[in-house]
Amino acid sequence: MAICLLTVQSCEIVNDIPYPIVEATITGFEVEGQRAQEAGGNVQATINQQNRTVTLYVDDSVNLSELRITRLTISEEAELLPDSASCKDYGHFPREGFESLEDLPRSMDTRMDFTHPVRFTLRTYQDYEWTVTVEQLIDREIVMENQIGSPVIDVEHRRAIVYVAPDQPLDAIKVTTFDLGGTHGEVYPDPTEASTYDFSQPCTFYVRYSWEEVSYEWKVYVYQQESSGATGDVMARVTTASLSGSIQNGKTPVVEYKTESESSWTTLAASAVSVNGTNYTADFTGLQAGTTYQYRVSIDGMPGEEQSFTTAPATPLENGGFEQWSEEAAGTQTLYNPWASGATSFWSTGNGGSAPFIGSITTPTDDSVSGKAAHLQSRWAAIKLAAGNIFTGDFALDGTNGIITMGRPFTTFPTGLRFYYKYKTSKVNRVKVDRFEYMRNQNDSCHVYVALTTDKYVVRTAKEESFNRKDPSVIAYGEFASNQNQSTYKQVEIELEYYDLKKTPNYLIIVCSSSKYGDFFTGGDASEMWLDEMELIYE
Questions:
Q1: pLDDT higher than 80, residue 39
Q2: What are the residue ranges of CATH 2.60.120.890 in the chain?
Q3: Of 105, 202, 404, 413, which cross-links 237 as Cys (Cβ 3.0–4.6 Å)?
Q4: How far is Cα 322 from Cα 336, in angstroms, rounded to an integer?
């Protein structure tokens, strides 16, 4: 009896199988009326994967309480659960991601109340809570005849103060812009419709936003004030700089500049100076890297206060000639590293994953333009394609997959990337991801891209992730790809396209691969690429 009981007990089924960890993320988010936080900035939503937050901005054409989501992409494995209290129609809100409203049935309703942060739950085997914050930006602007500087606008108390020149009569002021309700709002009475308007006393206006029927009372005060000339701030890059500031309406600024060591001033061409009401911009070009300049702005022949700015340095690319290498044992194979022994790495490769099994797929070679070069080879690694690669950042293993952390500290502004390359293509014969099946038997492509970002960028090959040039952290981007054989070294220049000229980068990302879609384990297992004499361009 005891033996039988023990036997039965030993057959007890215990549900202790752990669920896999499948993290769910929001990869894209767009709404009606979406805009950049500042003019010339990035319109894309800022998605913070670590904190699981999304932040974006909208203009004054939309109603925050019934804002329509036009794009919401999430991890393929996840179910989308919106906050029911924020949905206009919870029962008809999509339960999966969508690229556009055209992808949804007509019955779907993606409107939500974003007057406060909204929570979304993404469900896989676990629940992941995300918070989406939408901020509405209303560009209130007033421009009057002989106005000095920008108006002081107090939104909370609904009042505005405007200063004009001492010789401007307050009872007869020409008004050209009066957008107290934003670009899409309305103001009554509208002072721009009259030839002049009397501001000798505080004036009352009624402002209505584009999405509301109700109007709000505003008070506008106009005072005379002595002008202190033009004011401005400079965004200095390497060989260029941008000056922006305020000026008395109707005046034309004359901008002069020189280096600290020079005695005479150079006048900036009138074509490089733009005036819009009480705001002006001036663009400096042909500057020297890492140099301090003085500048002044003259109004009516009266020079303003001398101020200064310093251009950013033309920082060279570390080990861009791929001369420095070290090696270490990896079982019976050799692991090659693109940095000198004992030195800190700037470049990295995926050799840490391939070396113990098939050897290093990125190696030094004497087949170069000068000295050594980097040789990138795509090879079949028994279960998946290993594409030859070299990039700025770090590589770590996650089982048989890689975790690629892209980016090295970098705070200056190159205009492009120059390098020499050779390439031997092969037919794509390894396809792991279904959406790339169409590439089978086509020529494989080599790929080089460069990006300046505010944050490091992490790619996990196990999740079939890749670099997204539209990520909000990307300030500038450029790329080169070719599926043609190149038997001798050829020089290539990649031009960087800047998405945001008002931000300073924190990181430089350069990624090179012998198979463009190697991060998806797709390519030809006989493709080879040679790289040498890579350098950053500053023009």
A1: no
A2: 326-537
A3: 413
A4: 12
The CA-based angle 456-457-461, given to 5 degrees, is 150
Q: How many CB atoms lie within 10 A of CB 335?
A: 18
In our burial notation (b when 16+ CB lie closer than 10 A, e otherwise), range 149-161 reads bbbebeeeeebbe
Burial class of 327 by CB neighbour count within 10 A (0 to 12, 13 to 18, 19+): middle
**Interval 270-285: pLDDT, tens:** 999 999 888 899 999 9
Angle at 227 between CA 223 and CA 232, to 5 degrees: 115
At position 307, the amino acid (one-letter code) is Q
pLDDT the model gives residue 76: 80
Q: Where exactly does CATH 2.60.40.2340 map onto the chain?
A: 26-136, 141-224
Q: What is the pLDDT of residues 444-481, one digit of tens each?
A: 999 999 999 999 988 887 676 788 888 888 999 999 99
Residue pair 453/409 in contact by the 8 Å Cβ criterion: no
Residue 121's region, left for phi above 0, alpha for psi from -120 to 50, else beta, is beta
Q: What is the CATH superfamily name and number for domain 236-310?
A: Immunoglobulins (2.60.40.10)
Q: Where in the chain is the domain with CATH 2.60.40.10?
A: 236-310
pLDDT tens digits, one per residue of 198-254: 999 999 999 999 999 999 999 999 999 887 677 788 999 999 999 998 888 888 899
From the list 330, 370, 311, 322, the residue with the least C-alpha distance to 346 is 322
Two tokens, residue 240: 């260029």
Concatenated DSSP letters of 136-194? E----EEEETTB-S--EEETTTTEEEEEE-TTS-TTSB-EEEEETT-TT-EEES-GGGS
User: What pLDDT sits at residue 21?
Assistant: 60
